[in-house]
Amino acid sequence: MAKLYYDKDADLGLLKGKTIGIIGYGSQGHAHALNHRDSGLEVMVGLYKGSKSWDKAKTDGLKVGTVQETAEASQVLMIVLPDQTHKQVYEESIVRALTPGKTLMFAHGFNVHYQLIEPPAGVDVSLVAPKSPGHRVRELFVEGGGTPGLVAVAQDASGHALDDALAYARAIGCTRAGVIATTFLEETETDLF
Length: 193
What we know:
By secondary structure, the protein is α/β, with parallel strands linked by helices.
């Protein structure tokens, strides 16, 4: 039977004092960033210069920087860009900032599962995938509910990658509804097929 996690299993305090970098401000990105902020965490949104989302994120009261600036400033980095852009953005603006002790996260396992992105050994690599479009993730959070989600760990350099991923899931509201433990392979294949 699948392992389910709820708020009682997730310690939001693990993310206090850390900067959570959200790379992208589309459907999932805006929900993740705003829900983290409303959970009392420090958030920074990473975008390319000239992005039409830059002013939107600023208007929403969020700190915004380039992807590279955000990657350098953040201890936890969530990539919520379209899959086809991950590899290029990762290689150009993220990988050099992934120093030991940081966490690299994804909302979809495709690029890690198919080894298009191969993170360095000293970082945690995890996945938190809400099973709903971002606007619904945000709506339910604001209403006091949450969207079910999936959690997985591909690389546990710290020994607490799962605990940190569950804290992330709680910050966006997923543990209110329940988070199911999975793997990058299972999440990728069920999403694709």
